[in-house]
């Protein structure tokens, strides 16, 4: 975070990217990458504004071309989805023993609970720690944090749960050969939920945590010759990448990750991990990918994500609360963590589905502005504004040192450092999850409305982030 603050400060007068700092960690090398641009932020905002006006001038023609192109692609998508018409979701797989990574994480903790809710299920959780006991104690603390002392104790004490100290970065997953061998022999499914989800850092770290780790787990799944384990990668909808420059694209579950990998190291490493899983479809009977949207508070209530400050959506919310404005043309798809875990378990356990990519997101679109302004305590504190007014606010914030963090977050989060308004490019790509929603619907799954308590808690926490 300190590195980001440094780069954000430099960006006021120089053109540079956060990745420059990681790619050129020696100060002298980093300095060579800086291109002086006095008054850089005012210029950036002025360029974004003129790009926005140009886009608006072309809007009628843009919308007509967009509607035409997307309608055609939608038709082709629906035709492909017809292959799933007979799926009714009643036939379930019996995995017996599953290996779960990332159980100390937000989604992983809920996925662990979900897997154990199947009375026939047994789970081995691979958790970082000095030894099995330490790993178990740490997982126990996380579970108590999310599910309360009693709920956490029940889960960690469940005799069907085994905790193994391991590290996905290390050969053999950091397990002893005996433990590794026993897992390779016994596990029927791998649920790979662990990831380095930082939004900045050295690429080598993302590669080790997200790509090499996936390769090691795929090897483990393939170890039982002739009878491999199923593999379920928890991925992110961000892998769908940037919108095309001059055409329109409906991104569906059938789309592989783009040929050009993303600049963002987290996203890039998740794209590479997906490629590995797709390539493993020859060796494994079922190598599936679950691309997840913005994970927020649980629909059933409970505490917010313990490492909430690392969550990109939360940081952006916090920035808007700090600035006192929120754009009125952005949408959010809020995916409740407990419902995401349930959806993944349902899709993974459906015997009729193999080698699939799913889009696990709430199909319900809320506007970001409604989400923020309708939360308890937010009325009057944050105003919904058009994009021009948002740019006005950002421009004023340049001269307000106390807005530094919120300003930098918004410039980065909305891709404004590029000098372009996000709408023109963003609207060239439409993401769909219709097929996944239909499959889930046939298994009785639906997304509940936004729970008011979770919304209020999240915005209260957001109000705190940039005010320190
Ligand atoms: N949160 C979201 O909004 C969101 C959205 C889309 C997709 N996803 C995906 O959902 C998954 C879970 O995300 P999350 O937000 O729940 O993450 P999180 O809370 O940050 O948890 C990450 C988990 O990965 C583990 N991990 C990381 N590196 C590891 C390593 N080398 N060895 C062993 N364990 C390691 C962490 O273990 P430690 O406790 O030891 O650090 C932790 O359990 C990720 O695959 C992510 O890409 C999340």
TrEMBL record:
**Gene3D superfamilies attached to this UniProt entry:** NAD(P)-binding Rossmann-like Domain
Which top-rank group of organisms is this from? Bacteria
Q: What is this protein called?
A: Thioester reductase (TE) domain-containing protein
Q: What SUPFAM superfamilies does the record tag this protein with?
A: NAD(P)-binding Rossmann-fold domains
Entries under InterPro entries matching the protein:
FAR_NAD-bd, NAD(P)-bd_dom_sf
Q: What's in the keyword line of the UniProt record?
A: Phosphopantetheine, Phosphoprotein, Plasmid
Domain (Thioester reductase (TE)) ranges: 100-343
